[in-house]
Design goal:
heterodimer; A: 183 residues; mainly alpha; 7 helices; rod-shaped; B: 328 residues; alpha+beta; outer membrane lipoprotein receptor (LolB), chain A; Phosphorylase Kinase, domain 1; 2 domains; seven-stranded antiparallel sheet
Chain lengths: 183, 328
């Protein structure tokens, strides 16, 4: 695997985990949509992510699934210290650390044994979700950024005018001068 | 025997009445005294010359701010600025308040500043506030090694937050302030250092932010209350409309209606914006003492935020409707 491919896959896993900073999201998503191999990789990441997070759709495809996951993991670049581009309020498992997560395949086996009866459901749910995940990644960040920008604007305006309202507070302008609302 | 029992019963009854009246009297005295401390603190914050460093704590963040206040020839001037990035600054002169935002290269100017000091915001008349808040005097505690009188403002319902102030016994300046959700402190301000001066040099009261031609000024226009096209059905008792403004945003001057409500202690803003696209983020948010609630209303996005519990902003948000005469 070339360095470029390794970089691309790392960016894909970060995008899936919403750790990507969004500047090149469109380019990356377009690349995934137009390349069958990348699409398949994205789908694999979805499966692996589902299993790791033990989400509702994270049911086992077949008895050899854990072996396949291990094989896929073995092909992935080992990223010892991925750069965190954006802090998230909810600490979700980072797909970027997937190279270190071979042991999780064992967890997948244990989880999988109890849900093997629903093998077909996993494929259907996961693949149908792949497209929606892509769309959510594509438009979700835009909406979130826009909502944040609007919200910050409202907050600043409120903090400016709270003083005019004669609210009982020490330094009513403190929130204006403070370093911002955070999230 | 019956006579003795009757006398004891009468005496007990009388004592209970006296105690009850006395307690009410003490409560009234304490409330009046607490309000007197607040009024004196407001006066001190306006008339004294001082500079200091204040720590502001909310959630897990701590900010350091510099405060300068001058009073000369009957005119107040103030400056508040953050020590760290993004180095925002607020300057108040006799006729305007200017906010500088270096992070967005924008300024906001209000040409009708309130008559009160930026150090302590309080309504002119505290009498009406007793319907929804209880004012009480606490013990003497030390802030920055200075003896300070504690004054509490407690809400009488669960739709408002409480406040607690520590007022310097000597100078009467407020040294510490807390916003309270029940007993929990949601925001706090405290002076780390404070020095009283005979005067503050003009350069310390002048803005330090350099503004050039690339900066933009935020636009807004004040609208008469009669032009309000929204009905507000869920506003809790005690809150009234303070202002109605229309903000202009973006290059196409997108209009956002801003309605400011206050009960004299807490302020709440209502924003009615155009809904951009079908997707929007509707989630309650809490930042320090500020709660916000967002919902979709036809083709509008309604956001309510203020220093009040989540329940209050939600009630107000759900009670907003477009006036029927305006159609949809």
């Amino acid at each position: 695997m070339t360095d470029q491919e390794k970089d691309l896959r790392m960016r894909m896993s970060m995008l899936m985990d919403s750790d990507f900073d969004g500047r090149d999201n469109h380019r990356l998503i377009d690349a995934i949509e137009s390349d069958a191999e990348l699409k398949a990789t994205w789908a694999r990441y979805s499966q692996i992510g589902d299993v790791i997070r033990s989400s509702a759709s994270g049911q086992m495809a077949d008895k050899n699934f854990a072996t396949k996951v291990s094989a896929v993991i073995a092909q992935e670049p080992t990223i010892l210290a991925p750069k965190k581009l954006k802090a998230l309020p909810n600490k979700r498992l980072s797909m970027a650390t997937i190279g270190l997560a071979a042991s999780l395949a064992m967890v997948a086996v244990i989880v999988g044994k109890s849900v093997n009866d629903h093998a077909e459901v996993f494929h259907t749910a996961s693949y149908s979700q792949t497209h929606s995940n892509l769309m959510a990644a594509k438009y979700g960040n835009q909406v979130e950024n826009q909502a944040d920008s609007q919200f910050n604007d409202y907050l600043v305006m409120h903090n400016e005018t709270a003083y005019m309202a004669g609210s009982a507070a020490m330094l009513p302008y403190v929130r204006v001068v403070g370093s911002g609302p955070g999230r | 025997m019956n006579w003795v029992v009757l006398r004891l019963f009468s005496l007990t009854f009388l004592a209970l009445i006296i105690l009850s009246v006395a307690r009410e009297g003490f409560a009234d005295d304490s409330e009046s005294e607490a309000k007197a401390w607040l009024q004196t603190a407001r006066l001190a914050a306006s008339k004294l010359n001082y500079r200091g460093i204040v720590s502001y704590m909310k959630d897990s963040q701590i900010e350091s701010l510099h405060v300068f206040h001058g009073f000369s020839n009957g005119v107040e001037q103030e400056r508040l600025l953050s020590v760290n990035t993004p180095m925002r600054e607020v300057v108040r002169t006799a006729d305007k308040v200017t906010c500088y935002y270096p992070d967005s290269k924008s300024i906001s100017i209000d040409s009708k500043p309130s008559r009160q000091s930026m150090l302590l915001g309080l309504p002119d008349d505290l009498t009406d506030l007793s319907k929804h808040y209880t004012f009480s005097l606490g013990e003497i505690e030390h802030v920055a090694r200075r003896p300070s009188r504690v004054v509490s403002i407690q809400p009488k319902d669960d739709l408002r937050y409480g406040r607690r102030l520590w007022i310097d016994v000597e100078s009467k300046l407020p040294l510490k302030f807390e916003w309270l959700d029940g007993k929990q402190v949601v925001e706090q301000l405290v002076f780390n250092s404070l020095s009283l001066e005979k005067s503050i040099p003009p350069e310390e009261l002048a803005p330090s932010t350099q503004v050039d031609g690339t900066w933009k000024t935020k636009q807004h226009e004040t609208l008469p209350a009669e032009s309000l096209i929204w009905t507000l059905d869920g506003v809790p008792d005690g809150f009234h409309m303070v202002s109605y403004t229309r903000l202009k945003r973006d290059s196409n001057n997108r209009a956002i209606d801003h309605i400011l409500l206050s009960d004299g202690v807490s302020s709440i803003s209502i924003y009615i914006d155009q809904l951009m696209g079908e997707i929007f983020t509707a989630q309650p948010r809490k930042i320090g003492a500020i709660n916000s609630y967002t919902r979709k209303l036809d083709k509008y996005l309604v956001t309510v935020m203020g220093e009040a519990p989540e329940k209050t902003v939600q009630i107000i948000g759900d009670g907003i409707h477009l006036q029927e005469s305006m159609g949809k």
